[in-house]
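Researcher: Please predict.
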Amino acid sequence: MAKVPSPLDCACFNTRKTARVLGQVYDRALEPSGLKNTQFTALAVADAYDGISITDLSKAMEIERTTLTRNLKLLERDGLVKVGPGADGRSKTVILTAKGKRRLDGALPLWRQAHERMLREFGAKRWKSVQKELDAMRDRLHP
């Protein structure tokens, strides 16, 4: 007879639990920069593009648009991003400001330290394998 799955074996529960732990590791490392890991990621993605729509940024980060908008308000308040009209007049574009670029550049060494710690403690080879599996899960389950 097959074992009945437990809610504690839930993929969502376990990946979120792990994500919270990882978030805490990166948040502690980024603390001197004044950025949370979610803010750092938003700045890094915005920096990778020369202006990106909020919709595209939310897709790139796999974050709900409303959550992203709330986070962007804080970054905009601090002068790290500028949110302005998009190409079609209906959308909005996120642009990294010079202050945002300096803050991101200052945070990068802190992020690298956290990432290297994670690779050292978890194993770079294991991480590549997990990353590949997470990518496959997202590709398979994404609506």
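Model: The mean pLDDT is 92.
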